[in-house]
């Protein structure tokens, strides 16, 4: 069945698809009682929604002023993945404030996040750009199954048969449980439109006071072209690149509306139809182009 993802790449645990590299059912279960600190920050996203971008922004806001000789440390080591501990880090030994990235659905996150002290930043992106970005990503990540036909990938995406499961369920779940968390929602599109305002919103949420120059510096370094040139931000050393040179792969295009270059009108309408059916009740307005 072409709709079924290969078991070599994905496994389903508690109704959610994880990649087989780096996660096991046992460590996912253990996350429920993962001990969190009030100062912890979690970046939660559906894949391809701007996770790395937010990782870099938080790194810049929290650390850039005092890297203290750790300039070579990559974003992935500063902000590890909660459910994929690629580097076997001891999370309990990390200094505060710890920042984690996660693709978990709201219902699989550490139980104590619901005490609403630790912070969550949830980034969404319009699903047409997400699926197009995702499709390109499967070609470069060896941990993902490459699906060469876009229309098949789109069907798997809409059916939730990809890492991260259903985009609709992920977003709907986090939005409709917002009151259970100390959470800030941001969209990829608003960051793209006005990065400075987004940075200020984040600083405000974190209770972090930056000077005007520091804000400018964060914004400058978080712009697509500058991040693309920064190996720490662009995950150049991430294991599993299919391509030999391993360069500039995480940051591909970084635009809003790239879906128009790949999707047919029929495919776009197919997405609209599914969204209408599944998400009409949510107060989310998608931005398809800017
Ligand atoms: P594209 O494939 O459309 O270029 P994630 O980090 O969740 O995997 O998301 C990756 C997407 O975010 C990629 O989208 C990538 O280019 C984009 N991205 C990363 N940093 C960005 C930045 N500074 N500005 C705009 N887009 C960025």
From TrEMBL:
The gene is LOC112955586. Gene3D superfamilies: P-loop containing nucleotide triphosphate hydrolases (3.40.50.300). Keywords: Cytoplasm, Transferase. Residues 38-281 form the Sulfotransferase domain. This is Sulfotransferase. One of its GO terms (cellular component) is cytoplasm. It is found in: Cytoplasm. It is an enzyme of class 2 (transferase). Its EC number is 2.8.2.-. GO terms for molecular function: sulfotransferase activity. Belongs to the sulfotransferase 1 family.
């Amino acid at each position: 069945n072409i709709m079924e993802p290969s078991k070599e790449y994905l496994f389903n645990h508690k109704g959610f698809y994880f990649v087989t590299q780096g996660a096991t059912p046992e460590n996912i279960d253990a996350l429920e009682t993962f001990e969190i600190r009030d100062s912890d920050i979690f970046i939660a996203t559906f894949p391809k929604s701007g996770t790395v971008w937010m990782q870099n922004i938080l790194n810049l806001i929290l650390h850039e002023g005092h890297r203290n000789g750790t300039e070579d440390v990559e974003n992935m080591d500063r902000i590890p993945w909660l459910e994929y501990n690629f580097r076997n880090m001891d999370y309990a030994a990390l200094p505060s404030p710890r920042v984690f990235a996660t693709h978990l659905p709201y219902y699989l996150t550490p139980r104590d996040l619901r005490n609403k002290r630790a912070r969550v930043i949830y980034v969404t992106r319009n699903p047409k750009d997400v699926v197009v970005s995702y499709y390109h990503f499967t070609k470069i990540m060896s941990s993902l199954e490459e699906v060469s036909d876009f229309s098949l990938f789109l069907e798997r995406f809409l059916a939730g048969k990809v890492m991260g499961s259903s985009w609709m369920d992920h977003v709907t779940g986090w939005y409709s449980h917002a009151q259970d968390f100390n959470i800030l929602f941001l969209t990829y599109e608003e960051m793209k439109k006005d990065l400075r305002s987004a940075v200020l919103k984040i600083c405000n949420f974190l209770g972090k006071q930056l000077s005007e120059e520091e804000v400018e510096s964060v914004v400058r370094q978080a712009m697509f072209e500058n991040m693309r040139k920064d190996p720490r931000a662009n995950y150049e050393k991430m294991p599993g690149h299919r391509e030999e040179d391993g360069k500039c792969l995480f940051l591909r295009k970084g635009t809003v509306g790239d879906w128009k270059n790949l999707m047919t009108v029929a495919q776009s309408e197919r997405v609209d139809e599914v969204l209408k059916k599944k998400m009409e009740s949510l107060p989310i307005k998608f931005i398809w182009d800017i």
